[in-house]
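for the recovery benchmark. tokens below, seq after
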């Protein structure tokens, strides 16, 4: 049992730490990131409107969700938050195929999958959830957090599809329906 708990700790620290770093890039410009203004411009260009609100949400979901995962505190909320952000990121990269070497969705998909798995599987013994008697790590919390994250990711992806299709129609480039479905960016 202790080996499983150590494995969960290592996974939480690795996935959580990576997400915190990516969120800090978006929010604060840390680690060579664009900061809030740069990320807002990039988000707008990718079809996430308004760009600044989406930059804040993406950065907070990554940094906050990653921190909760690393600490093993409110693990279902942290994992669901990070998984939702990674679902939207995966959708952006979907037209490039699977592998990250081609700009594909491999990297955000793996981060999202690991985050969702931690939300469902729990943080293990070496966590703040264990210290608090799993006050914020209940079955209903997991179901509610994952459901809310799913709705949030779906809504964000659909709004982006609409914005990208509208941009394509306005520019007269390509098939707006194909662009909206993620067939082309």
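predicted aa per position
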């Amino acid at each position: 049992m202790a080996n499983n708990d150590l494995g969960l700790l290592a996974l939480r620290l690795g996935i959580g730490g990576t997400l915190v770093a990516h969120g800090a890039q978006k929010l604060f410009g840390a680690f060579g990131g664009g900061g809030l203004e740069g990320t807002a411009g990039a988000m707008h260009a990718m079809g996430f409107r308004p760009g600044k609100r989406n930059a804040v949400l993406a950065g907070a979901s990554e940094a906050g969700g990653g921190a909760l995962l690393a600490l093993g505190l409110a693990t279902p909320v942290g994992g669901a938050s990070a998984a939702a952000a990674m679902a939207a990121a995966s959708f952006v990269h979907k037209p490039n195929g699977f592998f990250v070497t081609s700009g594909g969705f491999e990297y955000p998909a793996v981060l999202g999958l690991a985050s969702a798995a931690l939300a469902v599987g729990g943080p293990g013994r070496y966590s703040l959830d264990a210290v608090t008697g799993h006050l914020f790590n209940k079955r209903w919390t997991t179901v509610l957090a994952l459901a809310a994250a799913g709705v949030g990711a779906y809504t964000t992806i659909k709004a982006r599809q609409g914005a990208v299709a509208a941009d394509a129609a306005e520019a007269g480039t390509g098939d707006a329906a194909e662009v909206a479905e993620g067939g082309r960016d």
